[in-house]
Amino acid sequence: MNQTHMIDPALMDAEVAEETHDLALLQLGEYLQSERYRFVTVTPLTHQRVNAREDNRTARTLRDVFGWSRPFDNDLLPEQELKVLLDSGVLRVHAGMWVSDVRWSSLDNLLFVHSSFPTLANDSVFFGPDTYRFAQAIEEHLRTTAHPIHAAVDIGCGSGVGAILIARARRDANVLAVDINPTALRFTAVNASLAGAANVSVYHSDILTGTTGDFDLIVANPPYMQDTQQRAYRHGGEQLGSELSVRILEQAIKRLTPGGSLVLYTGAPSVDGIDLFLEQARPLIDTADLAWTYREMDPDVFGEELETATYHEAERIAAVVLTVTRRARA
Question: pTM for this one?
């Protein structure tokens, strides 16, 4: 007797819903581009402070809706656009008004979709000041390297900024965007399509375990806080959040081609003047076959964390860039 393999209707419905949602996001991004939308995403504390002002309780512009995550009840969107976004779940009802479940941020002439404020869910996709500094580090490396880039990977891609910047700068490169968060992979796919980065491919992977081969460029902007709730988008593990960055370093340096580089943007907590991240990284990179540079992009970020019990011994958290290059064979 022939056996018929049935697909679970619930799974099929979920896939259709995701496709509808992501298509609506792409169309929204194109609409915002046509409206010359621009928004620079700030720190959560700044976002909270600005939204707390009396005049900022509800949205008056597209930036208010899709940047500041404010509820709206006026005619900011065309009726058909509003219906599509409501039907697809991009917008939802909130206290008798509507609110967006996503934000859109500008990076140069590009737009990136990511999670709305506040980012509380475990699968939130964050974009903010760290993203802009990460982008600067990648762009500087791309300007200065002479090494050909045929294969590249963005580890923990989030909204896909790293992968997309590389893909647009090196159109012939095969660029992977990997993450353990399915929402991040979906947002990256939307953002890559909107940016015209057809050479970006998204894959589920825990660091590099789901990939094969070596890479000419590896970039990463991992979570680097020790988050008591262990939210995936924020938690960098033990050692005051530097554990994940060290794991990435360990895996990445083994997968570099001769002449290939890792550009790792992360946070470095200091205790009694000792940089905990660099202290763990140095034994891995002080080898004859590797060359490396290390610099602080900002000496003091997330200062509010120093008030918590977790960080009671820390003096500061710095935003740093570690670049490691495998020496080319003679």
Answer: 0.93
